[in-house]
C-alpha cells in the first residue's frame, strides 16, 4: 500500500500510469492541466509517449488511434476542451475504441470561470455526441476516488470497448488529500479477458459481450470506420438492418453490463424519510448534512452516485420510493435532479439545491436547513384536514 | 447497507486569506504536507482567480485524525488574513470563524472581539510569517514544516520569516486568552 498526499489531478494521472497507460495526448486547460504536468514528467520514464497536441481535436483523435493500436491511452481537459472533443468521442463510440477522457469541470458555458468548480457538464458528458450512443460517466468525490475511479475507468473502457468519461471537478482536481493506493493494479484486459481474435471485431452474438479488439498494425485484417459498418467492419451506409443492429448493440453492450458499470454508496438510515442524492465533490457536504440531520432525530440518508451514466433507475427508484423528501444538491442549475424526478412517485417531494460559480461549495448547513424547512412543510400539509 | 453511528467528526480548519502572489496556496500546501507527515489526515483546498498576481485567494487545510468527511467547512478554526481581497471573497466564512489574525495594514479594521490585527506582511515574507503564526497553534508540526520550507528556493530568508511568525504567534497566544481554545483544539490533534 502506498500512501501519498496528492491532488485529485495527480491521483488521476497516477491511476492511469498504474493501469498501464502508455499514451497521453492533451492540450492544457485549467483546471485539468496538472494531469498533463504529471504525465509529461512521468509517462516517458514509464515507457510511454506524451504529446502536447495542437488542440483538443487532435488530442482526442490521437488517443483514439493509440487505443485502436492496443495501447492504454487517455486525455484530460475541461469544459471548452471537452466540447471540442465531442466529435472524437462519438467516433470512439462508433469504432469501439477503449479510451479514457477526464473532464475536470469548471464553471461554464463558454470560457466561464476557469478556476472555479462546477458540475455543469453532466448532461454534456452523457449526451454530447450526435446519434444514439452510450458512454460511461464516473464522478469522483475526492482525490482518493479520483484514483479509484480512474482505475475503474480503464477496466470498463477495455472490458466493454467503450469510451469512459471521468467527470471530476475543480474542487476534486485541485484539492489535495491523503490517497491510499495499492502497490500494483491489474492491467485491464481487452474484452474482459477474451482474446479470441478469430471472431468478427465489430459483432457478437451476445450484445453484452463485446468482441475483443485485435490491435491495429499487428497483422490482423482490420477495417475501421466511423460510418455504419457490419460485424467485419465493412462500410454500409444504406441498409436499415446493418445500422439498427449496430447502434442497438453499442447501446446494449453498456446497458447489459449495468451491474458492472453502475457504482454507488449509501450512508444513513434504512428507508430514510429524507434522502439526499449527490455525486462528486458535493456528496461530501451532503454526508455531513445527513450525519447532522440524524443527530437531531431525523431519519436521513445519502445516496452517493459514483456512476452518472448509464443511470441505474432501478437502484435509484429503490432508494427514492421510501423517501418523503429528496434533496439534490448540485453545482449547476439542476441536472441529475431530472433522474430523481423520473423515478419519484407522487408522495415524494424532490427539491434541488443549486449553486454555481465563484468557487463556492454548497455547505452542509445549507442542505440541513433546506431539508428541515421542506420536511416542516410536508408535515404541515399532511396535517391539513 | 451501512448502519453508521452518529459519531462526532472532529475536523479542524486553518485558513489563509490574501491576494494572488502572496504565496497563500503554497503556504497551505506546506502546512498540509507537514501535518500529513505527522500522521494526520489532511485536505487542502483553495479558491483563486485566473491571474498570476492580484485577485482574491483563500486557501485552507482541514486537519483530522480520521479520514476527512467534508473538506468544505462553513467556517474555520483559525484564519490568517494577509489582504482585504481574500477577506472580501469569503467574508461570511471568515467572520464566523473562531479566531482571526489579520494584517493591520492590508486588511480593513474588523470590529469583532475575536479579530486581532497585527503587522504580518511587513514582518517578512507574508506566507512564511503566516505559517509561523499557525505553527504556534500546532507546535508539534514545527520541525516537519521547517523541513518543507528548507526545500524551497531562498530557504534561508523563508525560514527567517517563518521564525518571526512563530514568535508573533506565541506572543499573541500569551496576550489573548480567546486564542487559547483554538490552540488547544489544534494542539490536541498531533500531541495525543
User: What would the average pLDDT of chain B be, to the nearest integer?
Assistant: 93
State the distance separating the first and last CA atoms of chain B: 33 Å
Number of helices of chain A: 14
**CATH class term of the largest domain in chain A:** Alpha Beta
Q: Which structural class fits the helix and strand makeup of chain B?
A: alpha/beta
Radius of gyration of chain B: 16 Å
Number of helices of chain B: 7
- Going by CATH, the homologous superfamily of the largest domain in chain A would be Thiamin diphosphate (ThDP)-binding fold, Pyr/PP domains
CATH class of chain B: Alpha Beta
Classify the beta-strand content of chain B into a percent band: 15-25%
Classification by helices and strands of chain A: alpha/beta
Strand count of chain A: 15
Outline:
Chain A folds into two domains: 1-261, Thiamin diphosphate (ThDP)-binding fold, Pyr/PP domains (Rossmann fold), CATH 3.40.50.970; 267-383, Rossmann fold, CATH 3.40.50.920. Helix content of chain A is 38%, strand content 21%. Chain A has 14 helices and 15 strands.
Structure description:
The complex is a heterodimer of chains A (385) and B (192). Helix content of chain A is 38%, strand content 21%. In chain A, the strands form three sheets. In chain A, strands 2, 3, 4, 5, 6, 7, 8 and 13 form an eight-stranded mixed sheet that branches. A five-stranded mixed sheet of chain A has the order 10-12-11-14-15, sandwiched between helices. Chain A has a two-stranded antiparallel ribbon with strand order 1-9. The model of chain A has no long low-confidence stretch (mean pLDDT 95). Chain A folds into two domains: 1-261, Rossmann fold (3-Layer(aba) Sandwich), CATH 3.40.50.970; 267-383, Rossmann fold, CATH 3.40.50. Chain A is an alpha/beta fold. The radius of gyration of chain A is 21 Å and the shape is globular. Chain A is built from 14 helices and 15 strands. In chain A, helix 1 packs across helix 2 (33-42) and helix 1 packs parallel to helix 7 (143-160). Chain A has helices spanning 8-18, 33-42, 56-68, 79-84, 86-95, 122-127, 143-160, 170-174, 240-255, 258-261, 283-295, 313-320, 337-343, 364-383; strands spanning 2-7, 23-26, 49-52, 73-77, 100-107, 113-117, 136-138, 164-169, 176-181, 264-268, 274-279, 300-305, 307-309, 325-330, 349-354. A six-stranded mixed sheet of chain B has the order 2-3-1-4-5-6. Helix content of chain B is 42%, strand content 19%. Chain B contains seven helices and six strands; from the N terminus they run E-H-E-E-E-H-H-E-E-H-H-H-H. Chain B has 192 residues and is α/β, with parallel strands linked by helices. In chain B, strand 2 and strand 3 (56-64) form a beta hairpin. Chain B has one domain (12-191): Pyruvate-ferredoxin oxidoreductase, PFOR, domain III (Pyruvate-ferredoxin Oxidoreductase, domain 3), CATH 3.40.920. The model of chain B is unreliable at 1-6 (pLDDT under 50). The A-B interface holds A 5, 30, 113-116, 142, 171, 174-178, 266-268, 270, 281, 284-285, 287-288, 291, 294-295, 358-359, 361-365 and B 1-4, 6, 9, 29, 32-33, 36, 41-50, 67-72, 74. Strand 9 of chain A pairs antiparallel with strand 2 of chain B, so a sheet runs across the interface.
Amino acid at each position: 500500500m502506498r500512501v501519498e498526499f496528492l491532488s485529485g489531478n495527480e491521483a488521476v494521472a497516477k491511476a492511469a500510469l498504474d493501469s498501464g497507460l502508455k499514451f497521453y495526448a492533451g492540450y492544457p486547460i485549467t483546471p485539468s492541466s496538472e494531469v498533463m504536468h504529471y504525465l509529461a514528467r512521468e509517462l516517458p520514464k514509464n515507457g510511454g509517449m506524451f504529446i502536447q497536441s495542437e488542440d483538443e481535436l487532435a488530442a482526442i483523435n490521437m488517443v483514439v488511434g493509440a487505443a485502436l493500436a492496443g495501447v492504454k491511452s487517455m486525455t484530460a481537459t475541461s469544459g471548452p476542451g471537452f466540447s471540442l472533443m465531442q466529435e472524437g468521442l462519438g467516433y470512439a463510440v462508433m469504432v469501439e475504441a477503449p479510451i479514457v477522457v477526464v473532464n475536470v469541470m469548471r464553471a461554464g458555458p463558454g470560457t466561464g470561470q476557469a478556476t472555479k468548480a462546477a458540475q455543469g457538464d453532466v448532461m454534456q458528458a452523457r449526451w454530447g455526441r450526435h446519434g444514439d450512443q452510450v458512454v460511461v460517466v464516473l464522478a469522483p468525490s475526492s482525490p482518493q476516488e479520483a484514483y479509484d475511479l480512474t482505475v475503474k475507468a480503464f477496466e470498463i473502457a477495455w472490458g466493454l470497448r467503450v469510451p469512459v468519461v471521468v467527470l471530476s471537478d475543480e474542487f476534486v482536481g485541485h484539492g489535495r488529500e491523503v490517497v491510499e493506493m495499492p502497490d500494483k493494479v491489474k492491467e485491464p484486459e481487452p474484452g474482459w479477458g477474451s482474446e479470441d481474435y478469430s471472431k468478427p471485431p465489430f459483432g457478437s452474438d451476445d450484445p453484452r459481450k463485446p468482441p475483443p479488439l485485435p490491435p491495429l498494425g499487428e497483422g490482423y485484417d482490420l477495417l475501421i470506420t466511423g460510418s455504419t459498418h457490419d460485424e467485419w467492419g465493412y462500410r454500409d451506409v444504406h441498409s436499415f438492418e446493418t445500422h439498427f443492429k449496430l447502434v442497438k448493440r453499442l447501446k446494449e453492450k453498456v446497458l447489459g453490463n449495468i451491474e458492472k458499470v453502475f457504482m454507488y454508496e449509501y450512508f444513513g438510515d434504512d428507508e430514510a424519510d429524507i434522502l439526499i442524492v449527490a455525486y462528486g465533490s458535493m456528496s461530501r457536504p451532503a454526508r455531513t448534512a445527513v450525519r447532522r440531520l440524524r443527530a437531531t432525530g431525523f431519519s436521513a440518508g445519502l445516496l452517493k452516485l459514483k456512476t452518472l451514466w448509464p443511470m441505474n433507475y432501478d437502484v435509484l427508484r429503490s432508494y427514492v420510493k421510501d423517501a418523503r423528501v429528496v434533496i439534490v444538491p448540485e453545482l449547476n442549475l439542476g441536472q441529475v435532479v431530472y433522474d430523481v424526478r423520473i423515478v419519484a412517485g407522487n408522495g415524494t417531494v424532490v427539491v434541488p439545491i443549486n449553486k454555481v460559480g465563484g468557487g463556492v461549495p454548497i455547505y452542509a448547513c445549507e442542505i440541513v436547513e433546506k431539508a428541515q424547512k421542506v420536511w416542516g412543510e410536508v408535515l404541515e400539509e399532511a396535517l391539513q384536514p | 447497507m451501512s448502519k453508521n453511528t452518529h459519531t462526532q467528526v472532529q475536523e479542524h480548519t486553518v485558513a489563509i486569506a490574501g491576494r494572488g502572489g502572496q504565496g497563500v496556496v503554497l503556504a497551505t500546501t506546506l502546512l498540509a504536507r507537514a501535518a500529513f507527515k505527522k500522521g494526520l489526515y489532511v485536505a487542502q483546498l483553495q479558491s483563486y482567480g485566473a491571474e498570476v498576481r492580484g485577485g482574491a485567494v483563500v486557501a485552507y487545510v482541514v486537519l483530522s485524525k480520521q479520514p476527512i468527511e467534508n473538506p468544505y467547512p462553513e467556517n474555520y478554526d483559525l484564519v490568517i488574513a494577509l489582504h482585504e481581497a481574500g477577506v472580501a471573497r469569503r467574508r461570511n466564512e471568515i467572520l464566523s470563524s473562531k479566531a482571526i489574525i489579520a494584517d493591520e495594514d492590508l486588511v480593513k479594521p474588523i470590529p469583532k472581539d475575536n479579530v486581532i490585527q497585527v503587522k504580518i506582511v511587513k514582518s517578512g515574507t507574508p506566507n512564511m510569517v503566516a505559517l509561523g503564526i499557525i505553527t504556534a497553534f500546532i507546535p508539534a508540526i514545527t520541525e516537519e514544516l521547517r523541513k518543507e520550507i528548507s526545500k524551497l528556493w531562498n530557504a534561508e530568508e523563508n525560514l527567517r520569516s517563518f521564525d518571526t511568525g512563530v514568535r508573533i504567534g506565541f506572543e499573541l497566544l500569551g496576550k489573548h486568552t480567546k486564542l487559547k481554545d483554538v490552540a488547544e483544539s489544534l494542539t490536541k490533534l498531533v500531541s495525543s
